[in-house]
What does this fold into?
Amino acid sequence: MLVFYLKQLSNIVYSSQNPSSHQSIGIQINDVIRTSIQLLHSPYLRDISVPHYPTAVMVHAAYRHKRKVYYRLAELWLEFENTVLYPNINSLKQLLSKGWIRPKIETNTDDLFELYTLISTISATEQLLLHEDGEFHTKYNVVRPNGLPIIARIQSTNFTAEISFDRSPSHLFGKEESASKYRKIIDLYDGITGNSRRPDVLLKIIKKGRPEVKLIVEAKNTSALSTYASDSVYKALGYLNDYGQLWVSGQFPKVILSFPYGIEPKLDKKAEWLKQEVAIVSGDIEEKLSNIISTILFNQPTLSR
It folds into this structure.
């Protein structure tokens, strides 16, 4: 099984051009490929025949082996199988949120952090609906340019949730409710142009007899100490004014800023951060989004895991 696993890793086709950081994901992938090739040529492994495919017996034997390294091999193999050979959405979400490719602050990883924030939003919503109704069903769509506006539609007994990615609010919330003050002003003049803003993630939750929950989530792949980070709060306030018609009075928060790490509510302000129109999350983004959504729906955060 080890030889088969290393063969799979060594055959990965990957090209990383001009990586700017010694910790970049591209360099890590190339290191994995190079190390796998070297190990396959070692005198300990080069004469071992490669199985057609690891069997359940092989995996079970590795799990039961006294040496922990074999247990870890079984874990890594199943992770590889579920995310690369036979893609499984739940395994992919787990790998993105907890695994080694979890985004870090690096050059050219903005898209990855936006995807991480999207998946964290989907997972947080699914877990909340599972907690409330005992079950849910999600229909996923592909994330791609000019793709369908709804990336995930989550249905449970009492709730319907829809999530979009990199789309104007009008696609999810309706043109009338999402009328942009910015666009209205721009359209009054010749000589100046501008497109409507496209937040990274939009979330709508519907429950019969209750106001719709509408959230804008912006992914900010930057250091918490940077000027860009504090400027992002100002931009979020712009969303509140531009799309002010979206929200019923009383929904807090309305806009969420997601950072990789480094930002936490002050200990003496923990009762207040969920009562503001803009909230900031970092670290375990899924758990904090779950708290926010639960607070909006039920006026009570979920229990921390």
Confidence is low (pLDDT under 50) at residues 17-23. Residues 2-87 form one domain.
